[in-house]
Amino acid sequence: MSGRGQPDPARLLREARRVVVKIGSALLVDDESGGIRRKWLDGLADDVAMLRARGAEVLVVSSGAIAVGRRHLGLVKRTLRLEEKQAAAATGQIRLAHAWQEALARHGITVAQILLTPDDTEARRRHLNARATIAQLLRLDAVPVINENDSVATEEIRFGDNDRLAARVAQMVSADTLVLLSDIDGLYTADPRRQADAARIPVVTEVTAEIEAMGGEAATGYSSGGMVTKLAAAKIALAAGCRMAIAFGKRPRPLQALDEGAPATWFLPSATPLSARKRWIAGHVAPAGTIGIDAGAVAALGRGKSLLPAGVTRVEGSFERGDLVRVVGPDGREIARGLSAYGAAEMARIAGRRSAEIAAALGYRGRDEIIHRDDLVMSP
Fold it and tell me: Which residues pair with 57 in a beta bridge?
């Protein structure tokens, strides 16, 4: 279902508190020279600094490693084999990370490179590890620059496009806004390159079969995505409670332009990221274990607090870090459900202890909370 009214782009972007920005190879890499478009990148760095100056956290999903690296290895003017793509990515990732570092250093912004494979976003434990790393980088005021790990990914397991990777990252970190910078300013009723009467759709609230039928093919050149992959990304983002924009990226300051009302297509979810995550937790039908807690911990959860190890009285079942568990009170009644920060064996060793004692009990410093309040849903 598509909306008819144009939302206020400035309001949507200005309300954002955690933004994922995806940049494709066709925007970042010059088609003729194979080099990075430094002036354009500097403009985008200015945009990132603009968002951060008003309190937003920013993550970048950047394509371009293969496109940059292939020319330096002499792999030009032909289709690359898988191992050649991996070699090009290994070379290009260094140059790409250095370019981002230089561009954001002008604003005193620290950059961190993260390379992901599909398993890092879909396998539960690896998902949690990647999420924790990104969260820590954001707390340390760094900008994570994320790319698919093309140097090790294979054709069978790789994402194949960074639109879906960006959506998975937005889902992983509970971002409220995802911006896909593209060579087109939104979703059209038909391919505007072929049909002059094609109309841009300003708002989409649900990716229906009718909307999916509007997707076209990828453009030629370095781009590996197309409107089809952007609509797939929109499905992921909307399910995670994250709004998404498809915006024209070839302007000198594309995010500033979006901020000032440039045309785009906004995909608007019906839930916030946190409520979508908690709805998933509440709807999970097969908890892997049970945690018993004392009356004091029950009262703390009722006040919206996280569950600390001091309040745990017993641990039942066999579960791993990241698994869903039941939380029951002294009378055995279910109080809540949540994602455990520890496996059952580890939790049994720290049950009843203060958070400051976790390191001594386990031999390493883990999280202070057994279940963080963002990963916990009170039972009816």
Answer: 18
Identify the three-state secondary structure at position 238.
Answer: helix
Residue appearing with tokens 């076209």? 216
Instruction: Give, for 286, the enclosing helix (H) or strand (E).
Output: none
3-class SS at 143?
strand
Length of the chain: 380
Q: CA 366, 359, 115 angle in degrees (round to 5)?
A: 30
CB atoms within 10 A of CB 76: 10
- Residue-wise burial string across 6-17, b where 16 or more C-beta atoms lie within 10 A, e elsewhere: eeebeebbeebe
At 57-113, the pLDDT tens digits run 999 999 888 888 888 888 888 888 888 888 888 888 899 999 999 999 999 999 999
pLDDT of residue 348: 95
Q: For the ranges 259-268, 280-289, 367-376, which has the lowest average pLDDT?
A: 280-289
Beta strands in the chain (DSSP E): 2-3, 18-23, 57-62, 110-116, 142-148, 177-182, 203-204, 243-248, 264-267, 289-293, 312-317, 324-328, 334-339, 376-378
Which residues are CB-neighbours of 164 under 8 A, at least 6 positions away? 229, 232, 233, 236
User: Which phi and psi (to 5°) does residue 47 adopt?
Assistant: -65, -45
Tell me the pTM.
0.80
63's CB contacts (< 8 A; 6+ apart) are 22, 23, 24, 25, 28, 147, 162, 222, 224
